[in-house]
Amino acid sequence: MTTAEEHKAKGSGKDLVVYLCVLALAAIQFVIAYQNIDGSQMFVRMLIVAVIEAGLALLFFMHLAENRGLLWFVVIFTVFVLLAMQYGWTDSFRLSVGVAGAK
Amino acid sequence: MSQADLTMGGRPAGLTAGPAFSVPAKKMAMWLFIIADTATFAACLVAYGFIRNATPNWPRPFHSITNVAIMTFILVTSSLTMLIGVRAARAGDKAGALRWTFITAAAGILFALLHVREWLALIAEGMTLFKNPWGTGLFGSAFFSITGLHLTHVTGGVIALIVVGIRYKGSRYNADDLEILGLYWHFVDMVWMFVVPLVYLLNLAH
Predict the structure, then answer these.
(1) Domain map (residue ranges) of chain B
(2) Which candidate from A23, A42, A54 shows the least CB-CB separation from B202?
(3) Which one of A22, A67, A88 has the shortest CB-CB distance to B76?
(4) Hey, are the CB atoms on B189 and A57 less than 8 Å from each other?
(5) Which long-range contacts (CB under 8 A, 24 or more apart) does B118-125 make?
(6) Digit-coded pLDDT (tens) for B142-171
């Protein structure tokens, strides 16, 4: 087996393992959907699993694990944007339950 | 400081530095697009969460997870086939790369068809952009907007896979171009990982 073929075979093996992990995590999300738990707890659990799935896809499918500089650039930029979008949540609670202390 | 230190080949020295993060320009452009698109999808999903949280009678119309489970399996598997295609291209196996790229496109088409079938079933039950038989009319607009945006990305990806595949076959594109397209395809897959729990699984009828 040539070096290029060896490299390809080794890489394909890693890809398959990551693929199976992502599939398993997706299956866990479906299992969580049928658990008899509170809606907010279900949301948090599903979101955690989704973030892990996305992390695996980013690191191994999109090869960010091989470029630390780009990894930090993407993560810091994206996380900042995502966090900036969270400011409106309290207002959505205000719409559903009203302003705290108001009659 | 000599003139040679200030200029290299007639250009200022700063412009001759290597590409950012040692990533080729085309690949960097795709990463910037992915980051911008992440913000777009995140805005849609956060807005959806806001509406869902603030609306008391939010509909839960999904009785079965079979269709969405099959769609998820197809999309995640298409990411694997894309990876195999890119690895084949990197190893110089042109026929293999082309075969796996077209298998990925076929998986994308299958995903889109299942998606359209699901939409048609919901429309047949009386769901439109502005009303549905189960509760607030906002559900239809949120559902069709988010899944429609994702479906548009899948459709665009399938077209790109076919075009790049054909041009790769004609040697106009190379393995780098396939890899860059692969980045986009994995991104589409990644977005689906968030759409499924938020839009489908949290709206299962128990």
Answers:
(1) 42-51+61-203
(2) A42
(3) A22
(4) yes
(5) B118/B67, B118/B68, B118/B71, B119/B144, B119/B147, B122/B61, B125/B61
(6) 999 999 999 999 999 999 999 999 999 999
Question: Under a CB-based contact definition with an 8 Å cutoff, are residues B69 and A30 in contact?
Answer: yes
Residues of A in contact with B67 (CB under 8 A): none
Q: What is the mean pLDDT of chain A?
A: 84
Q: In this predicted structure, what is the pLDDT of residue B4?
A: 47
State which residue of chain A sits closest to B32, comparing Cα positions.
A74
Alpha-carbon torsion (B67, B73, B79, B82), positive or negative: negative
Domain range B42-51+61-203, its CATH number among 3.40.50.2000, 1.20.120.80, 3.40.630.30, 1.20.1290.10 = 1.20.120.80
Question: In this predicted model, what pLDDT tens digit does every residue of A23-51 receive, in sequence order?
Answer: 999 999 999 999 989 888 999 999 999 99
Q: Could you give phi then psi for residue B91, rounded to 5 degrees?
A: -85, 0
What is the pTM assigned to this prediction?
0.86
